[in-house]
Amino acid sequence: MMQKKTTSCWSSMAVIACLLFVATTQLRGVQAAAVMSVDLGSEWMKVGIVSPGVPMEIALNRESKRKTPVTLSFRNGVRSFGEDAVTDGIKDPASAYSYLLDLLGKQIDNPIVDLYRKRFPYYNIVADPERNTVIFKKSDTEEFSVEELIAQILVKAKEFAQEATNQPITECVITVPGYFGQAEREALLTSAQLANLKVLQLINDYTAVALNYGVFHPSGINETAQYYVFYDMGASHTSSAVVSYQLVKDKHTKETHPVVQVLGVGYDRTLGGLEIQLRLRDYLAAEFNAMKKTTTDVTKSPKALAKLFKEAGRLKNVLSANNDHYAQIENLIEDQDFKLQVTREKLEEICSDMWPRVIKPLEQALSTSGLSLDVISQVIVFGGGTRVPKVQETLKQYIKQELGKSLNADEAAAIGAVYKAADLATGFKVKKFIVKDAVLYPIQVTFERDPGEGAEVRQVKRVLFGLMNSYPQKKVITFNKHTEDFDFYVHYGELNHLSAEEQSYVGSLKISRVELQKIKELLEKTKNESVDTKGIKAFFTLDDSGLFRCTGVEYVYEKQKVETEEDDEGTLAKLGSTISKLFSKDKEGDKKEETAQEGSGNANEGEEAASAKDDKNKDAEKNETKTGETETPKKNETIKIVTVKEPVTHSLTVEFTQPLSGKSYEKAAEKLHSINKAENLRNQLESSFNALESHIIDIQQKLEEDEYASCATKEEKEKILAECSAASDWLYEDIENPTPEMYENKLKALKKLTDVFMGRHWEHEERPEALKALSKMIEGAEGFLNSAKNLTKETNPEKDVFTQVEIETLSKVIGDTIEWQKTEVKAQDKLKRYENVRLTVKDITNKMSTLDREVKYLVTKINLWKPKAKPSKKDKKKDKKDDEKKSEEEDKEEGSSSGDDANETEKVTEQTEDSNKEEQVEIPVTEKKSEGEEKTGDKEEVPVVATPTEDHTPRSDL
Fold first, then answer.
1. What does the alpha-carbon distance between residue 529 and residue 541 come to, in Å, rounded to a whole number?
2. Cα(212)–Cα(215) distance, integer angstroms
3. Cα dist. 950→227, 235, 484 in Å?
4. Residues with Cβ within 8 Å of residue 910, at least 6 apart in sequence
5. Distance of CA 101 to CAs 175, 311, 513, 948, Å?
6. Are 43 and 274 in contact, with CB atoms under 8 Å apart?
7. pTM (2 d.p.)
8. Which of 171, 603, 757, 866 has the fewest CB atoms below 10 angstroms from its CB?
9. 234 CB contacts (<8 Å, ≥6 apart)?
10. Contact 536, 557 (CB under 8 A)
11. CA 588 – CA 90 distance, rounded (Å)
């Protein structure tokens, strides 16, 4: 699609043009595969899919629903997911795991883990002995890390996507809360790796929603920045993001693309629908205890607490649309039922301290963006929590305008993420939409500097990525004071914009430690050379997923190089160099970007670095002067300044919560493989068992109906019923170690017996329709035959399309078919339904095929036929003179010949000349006589019929 450079053109583009979609099923030999997105929330999961030729859609789960509870359970050796796991959680709360997202990458002593224990007291949470992370211990032999549980959830997401697209899926984009740090993001990537998924990108949830809105609302995007606020209240957290939309012209390609940029973010990681539900649960528990129906405290019973939690969730949803409702639970505890009327006013009262917190994320987002509400076009809400009336009321009072509700509150993030997945995958082409996210936690480098002369060593800090800096981005820091091995630390910077409580939730501020080695040896290596050192440069990147990396460390210096004519590159070498540079254009561009960013962000040490360039220029001038005074350069010699980059030996140590790795990862992968294998085997076993059971019941019911029973003899019926009864008894026996093959073999043997009468029934049911279709075909063929009879040489010389033989052949086929139909139908009607079928549907279709072939042959012929061209009077006179002249010459050569022979020759010549002008259906051709035959004027005419291009077997009578 050609890029439009004007605002009006961009605005007029249809959404379909913005989306996909040239989905190429074959791209240079590589088949395009489907990709997916996973909007992984704390309570619900939505899976977006896109496959070749199919637009973006939400994958349905096994219950044909568009969202699935993020709950996993293990009971009696069986793993359940979604709604089934929620049901298991009522029966055995400690065996069902949910609301896991915020536990990713957390140490056991993090306040978030303590809050989780308080909310769900029935879990046994212990520390991982190696990483000090969260482990759910179910028994002495069964325990799960958070990464393992999340990985199994992603496996289910992949299954839903593959069932929806009927294709294998290996690539995805996953949404994450914007406040996820390095530890959480790395842990999620580990979970995806355990699930055999390649993560194309981790995208912040509000960024995915902003991308979705921009793609589906392109008309408002122009060269002037438009500002929007996206407010999300989900199950576990609330966030707010200020974004801008603008058309920006690329400096290199000169193309104009829409850009969405995150300018400000605010969040509250403990404010959401879950907190409201927990408040309701505790309120219902207190009311039940106040009723004194039992002496047992209901909060001490995990099963009762799980029932109250589920009812609180239902009550919360109902009270969002109604002023009051009854909470009802049968057999809450000790056979005691519970019923209580709860009003919306009461709900708002027990959550009264939460409502002032609703606007805090919005205020924080505006503050970090540096914008005010006056320039905001609209505040758009999404997420299930925004359906609570009090939340909407609080927001309206603050912004003093109506809330935007143009987005699907549940699916906006999943669709935005799958658009990004299609953009990043190889088999799709989407309208380019540039996304720039923002840094929530500043990242800085700290190192020690020794001023020398006995001065105290001091610590130096340099900011790499500041608050709200856009990413992806690259940075470089130059160290030019160190002559010995040293190290530096990367960690989060100042977090004064966060509350003290939130800072405690962030956990450790350390990211990594980089140790540089063999510095002295490296410097001494170039000590005796005339070099201009540029220092030791460390390169860093913050990629699209918000992941920080130290990509390398180099020692950079410049030196003089003398080149002679022999050193010059040849033409072909220069061409190869040019091509090489062409393909490395992006890499060089990145280097230029890094160098350009060395200004304020680049940490050059001391004043020497600032004056390095001036010193270099002075030295160069001195060298030039000295050379000019003392000696003249040799002929064809040139002095060039070359930049040399040598890698510096270094080691990197991760200092945040490390993800699963090494033997721990291998053990987790083996555990998940065995769980998946056992589940697949169980599913196959259930499927084969159900197939056999269903077939037995189906056959027994059918043999009780006259319609089916009449198609089997008495002996066959008795034998089939006996076999079904025996198979049924065997099916419900306590079989030791059953396998799917056992049930499949039993079903195969039973079907071999039942297919006989079922086949007869099918023939009797389908035969009337087949005969009806044959009769219609005969009727159509007869109509065509009547028309074709008028297109022969005998009936219409000008339109001699068909020969008499062809007409007779079709007439014979029609007659034979009619006679066959009458005979076979009469014979079949005399048979009983349980007797072997004489007139089968296959026989009828074979007759139809024969008749269809004959008709198609003639239809093709008439389509290829063209009328003969009538010669003009002038051509006729000319042809007549030529014929007379030719005839005289033949008379001289062969003697005399009869007038009839001359006329025949004239006829052949005339038709042959006409054939050069128009294609003829039938052309008389004169054959030469072989040796031994008389060389007289007698000629034999052989008719040659023009054969249509359609494949047709010639008949012997033609």
1. 33
2. 5
3. 65, 67, 86
4. 871, 879, 883
5. 11, 23, 27, 70
6. yes
7. 0.75
8. 866
9. 41, 42, 43, 205, 272, 273, 383, 384, 385
10. no
11. 59
Beta strand ranges found along 207-288 (DSSP E): 226-233, 238-249, 256-268
Condensed to tens digits (0 to 9), the pLDDT of residues 27-66 reads: 333 455 899 999 999 999 999 999 987 789 999 999 999 9
CB 749 within 8 A of CB 724: no
- Alpha-carbon distance 514 to 550, whole Å? 9
Closest CA to 478 of 609, 613, 614, 647: 609
CA-based end-to-end distance of the chain: 57
Q: What are phi and psi of 273, to 5 degrees?
A: -60, -30
Dihedral Cα 750, 752, 753, 759, nearest 10 deg: 120
Q: What are phi and psi of 896, to 5 degrees?
A: -90, 150
Which token pair is 726? Answer: 């025996």
Q: Which residue type, as a one-letter code, is found at position 193?
A: Q
What 3-state DSSP class applies to 940?
A: coil
Q: 10 Å Cβ neighbour count for 570?
A: 8
Percent of the chain with pLDDT over 70: 79
Q: Whole-angstrom Cα distance, residue 260 to residue 245?
A: 5
Q: If phi over 0 gives left and psi between -120 and 50 gives alpha, with beta otherwise, what is residue 879?
A: alpha
590 exposed, middle or buried (CB, 10 Å; 0-12, 13-18, 19+)? middle
pLDDT, one tens digit per residue, over 95-115 is 999 999 999 999 999 999 999
How far is it, in rounded angstroms, from Cα 367 to Cα 361?
10
957 CA to centre of own chain: 61
CA dist 267 → 283, 359, 413, 580, 922 (Å): 27, 10, 17, 47, 88
Residues 259-281, buried b or exposed e (16+ Cβ, 10 A)? Answer: bbbbbbbbbbbbbbbbbbbbbbb
Provide the token pair at 581.
């540079």
